Amino acid sequence: MRWYLLLFLLALPAKADSLIDQQLPDFYQQLKLETYPLSWQSGNFTDIATWRSNARQTLRQALLWPDEPVEFSPQLLKTEARDGYTAQLWSIQLTAQSRVSILVLKPDTTKPAPAVLLLHDHGARFDIGKEKWIKPFAGDSRLPSAQQWADKYFSGHFVGDALAKQGYLVIAADTFGWSERGPIEFSAQQALASNMFLLGRSLAGMAAYEDLRLVQFAKQLPDTDNSRLAVLGFSMGAYKAWQLAALTDDIKAAVAVSWMNDYQHLMQPGNNILRGQSAFYMLHPGIADKMDIPDIASLAAPKAMLFINGGKDTLMPLAGVEASYRKMQQVWQAYGAADKLSTTVYPELGHEFNAEQQQQVYKWLRTQLAENN
C-alpha cells in the first residue's frame, strides 16, 4: 500500500510541493518500521546461496527486459595511436533496437589484457557520455565539453586513458540519451519511461540490459582476458556498476564511486530519486517493496567490490551511506569473504572522483585483477 501512496504523491503537479512536504513525513516514518522480505537480514533465509539465487532472479525479472541476443556485427570505424595504447571507435549491434558506437582503448600488448568497462554518470550533461571517461579523438567537437567534465569531477584526468596506460583494455559506451544517443533531457526522459511502462518495459531495465550486453561484447573480444573483467562507475554509473556486478558473475571486480545509500535516507522530500525524470534510469518497478538498495548491491557478493563516497555529498546522505555499508558487510561476512568488500568515506569530499580517489582505485584494481589472483 505504501507505493500506491507514493505514486499518488509523485503525480501531483510541481506547484503542489508544499502539499507533498506536508504529507510525506508520516509516510517515510512508516518505511523505517518495515522490513524487506528479500533482504538477507530479513531472517527468511538460512542459506546465503539460496538467498542470493532467489533475490537475483527477482532482480532480473524486475528489469522487465527479456534476453534478446543478437549478433554484435562489429564494425571498426576509426583508430588513433596514443601513448602506449590505441583508441578505437566501433559500431556494434547492442540490442535488437540499438546499434551504438563504443570507444575501446587497446594497450600495446600481444596477449589478452584485463578489461575495465566504464559506466558514465548522468550529471545533467547530455552532449557527452562515453567521452566523460575517454578522451575524444583529435578534432572531435566534443573535446572541450569532455575536458570541462574531467576538470569538474576527475581532477582534469581522463580515467579511461589512465587505465589504458596501465595495461587495461578499456571499454565505454553511451547510455541511451547521451552523446551520440541523445540528447534526451529531463522531461523527455520521463516521457520515455512512461511510454516504456505502457509497453510493459522500463527505462532502468533497458539500461541494465544494455550493460549486460556490453559485458558479453567485452568477453568476446580476442584482446580481453575473460577471467579479469572489472566494471567502474561514477554517480549514476556507480549505481549501474554495482547493479551489473549483482546481475552477472562474468564481472570479477567492481568499483562504485558516489552512489550508495538506502531508501530510508533517499526517500525524503526534495531528493532526486522522487522527482521522476532522470530517476527512471534507476527505478525498477516493484523491486523496492522487496529489497533495499544495499540488498541489491549485496547480490554481487562474494566478488571483490570497492565503494567510495564523499562525506559532504548532498546527493548521498552520509547516514544512509554508512548504514548501507554495514548492511553489505554482513552479507560478505556470511560468505566468509569480508576481505573482498572495501568501503571508504572521504569525510571532506562531495560528489566527485578526484585524483586521490583515482589512485586508490588503480591500486585496488591492480590487486584484484592481478594475473594470479
UniProtKB/TrEMBL annotation:
Alphabetically ordered keywords of this record: Hydrolase, Signal
Signal peptide: 1-16
SUPFAM superfamilies per record: alpha/beta-Hydrolases
A molecular function (GO) term: hydrolase activity
Family annotation (InterPro entries): AB_hydrolase_fold, Abhydrolase_bac, FrsA_esterase
Superkingdom to which the source organism belongs: Bacteria
PANTHER family registered for this protein in UniProt: ACETYL XYLAN ESTERASE DOMAIN-CONTAINING PROTEIN, DIENELACTONE HYDROLASE DOMAIN-CONTAINING PROTEIN-RELATED
Name of protein: Alpha/beta hydrolase family protein
